[in-house]
Amino acid sequence: MQKYIFKDIHVVNEGKIQCMDVLLKNERIEKIGTNISEKGNVVEINGNGKHLFPGVIDDQVHFREPGLTHKATIHSESRAAVAGGTTSFMEMPNTIPNALTIELLENKYAIAAESSLANYSFFMGVSNDNASEALKVNERKNEICGIKIFMGSSTGNMLVDNHSTLNRLFSESEILIATHCEDERIIRKNYDALKKIKPELSPADHPLIRNEEACYESSLIAVQFAKKHNSRLHILHISTEKELQLFGNMLPLQDKRITSEVCVHHLHFTADDYAQLGYKIKCNPAIKAPSNKAALWQALLDDRLDVIATDHAPHLPGEKEPPYEHAHAGLPLVQHSLMLMLYYHSLGKISLEKIAEKMSHAVATCFQIADRGFIREGYFADLAVVDLARPYRVEPENILYKCGWSPLMHFNFPSSVVQTFINGNMVYENGVIHESNVGKRLLFNRQ
What pLDDT does 122 receive? Predict the structure, then answer.
């Protein structure tokens, strides 16, 4: 296996930026220090002017396989991920068929083992009537990232609104429960009321239908169940200022029982952008008024929000067309998430150290991922090399999503991901993807 050594590169890790040498050997980080030398066949990489980040771990993506492969595949979207510095992902169960049994879940792992360039894990899905099957993951707590509950509308049979089912899951699950929190009754009420006065809805109506109340009431219920049973709860894609009162920053992350995620699109877009982008930015939960974006940023920086993710959810361009009821919800984002946060760094909004924390360290801590998420000796060499001075413009020819488009089309990023390493292998370099190696299944350190 090829060995690599970075010389004089700025290592962004655990709250510090230090100019160091880093040696990669046998899939892992062998040594971090100064003036490191290594005998034998080793590729030396000049790190002058570049920054070395721990690879991004995205805890929420939809890679659409099986069943929806006209939109995306695990292979196609993992290619896009590694081109953007994302080295590991956790994928959602609302594929076709829904991943509602251990057998169906393991089928997805088998596909990834053959085709994913990035490291991978998959959530176990839940419906109102499969609690016993879903709880079998307790026996595999070190092999599966978590249980996913859609507490709002979703694909197929995955809306969980039965409180007896919820109570059982929260009381008996021994691993992390991740929730999509939107109240279906409130959403339906808002939709019906709006349709009475406006038969043809517009993109700007989406945050009125899936409003702050729908998000808050559902998140509140999840928090109440978690507190009742001392469950390990992780609420996905927080999108409203009101929900932030449910989260705290008084405990170290590793001691929190209730954690939260914010997605890059809720940190970047606001409801004002529907006028230009229309259904391209329709997603669930909805992108809302600018006051929410400002509050999310503040909560991210003061640690009430714990991790940054994408909720990468590709659809074909024709599937994003009107009318409202036809336009699918979801945005493709995994290729550009790190570069988007580096853009906000250039504006003085977030430090490089905080980016590494929220996109890598904190995700590994939240999910108790074994040997990843940090630049440490002995850890797997999952790394992203960034050039802060090399601009990157999103164009059709460099979009790697199978769907072929991005809501960030023609956006000018001030920085680029120039290399990505996964398990010590260079998988991406300056626009070229190397597909000779596949990623590994994520493992977890849980008692």
Answer: 98
Long-range CB pairs of 205-208, under 8 A, 24+ apart, other chains included: 205/324, 206/274, 206/282, 206/286, 206/287, 206/324, 207/271, 207/286, 207/287, 207/288, 207/289
Write down all domains in the chain, each with its CATH number in brackets: 3-52+381-392+412-433 (2.30.40.10), 56-367 (3.20.20.140)
| Three-state secondary structure readout of 120-162 | EEECEECCCCCHHHHHHHHHHCCCCCCEEEEECCCCCCCECCC
The single residue listed with the structure tokens 């499969």 is 130
270-290 pLDDT tens trace: 999 999 999 999 999 999 999
Contacts 24+ apart (CB under 8 A), 15-19: 15/353, 15/357, 16/353, 17/51, 17/352, 17/353
Q: What are phi and psi of 297, to 5 degrees?
A: -60, -45
Q: Does pTM surpass 0.85?
A: yes
Cα–Cα distance for residue pair 447/403, rounded to 1 Å: 40
